[in-house]
Amino acid sequence: MKRNKICIFCGSSMGFDPIYKEKALELGQEMAKNGCELYYGAGSVGLMKIIADVMMQNQCRVVGTITRKLVDMEVAYHDIDEIIMVESMAERKSILEERADAFIAMPGGMGTMDELFEAIVLSQLRVHDKPVAIYNVNGYYDRLIEWLQHAVDEGFIRKEHFHNLIVSADPKEILERIDAFKPVEVKKWVDNIKEESKNTTI
Known about the structure:
Low-confidence stretches: none
Structural class: alpha/beta
Distance between the termini: 47 Å
Order of helices and strands: EHEHEHEHEHEHHEHH
Largest sheet: 7 strands, parallel
CATH architecture: 3-Layer(aba) Sandwich
Number of helices: 9
Strand content: 15-25%
Helix content: 40-55%
Strand order of the largest sheet: 4-3-2-1-5-6-7
Shape: globular
């Protein structure tokens, strides 16, 4: 299934290592080559601006969603094709989740983590059947992947959900795996959780 509307979660900072900017450009170029549209947080700063610029330079549609407070702080990118202003961060995420076909988390901070994990949970619960990918530039997410594996090993994350998360440092591979994505069946793992709970006594 071809998924062209790609939502990017990423930092409003550039990061210290130039590789983050370089890899943002690489992802944008790969998305443009595949005829993708960009959906993101409408920022005019950091890695957000880098990927928006490369998409616009390649005549690809760019749509951003941003809170009025951030507009007042003068970090909105008014040159993009469409900018949607909302009152809350929750609304901002909701619009991106609704309109995008898939999600890619680039390196970022707390806001990126918030967006990434909400997208993962909604996929896990089949609120949406959209793939979620981690663009693991420069090993940025290695420790997060280790923690997720630890949570699987300790029985708090289902292994099928962990393996359904796309992780790669190669943007071409990410887009290929996004198109090949198949969601995990909810009923099976929910039944397993219920069965586990039945066998537990206090």
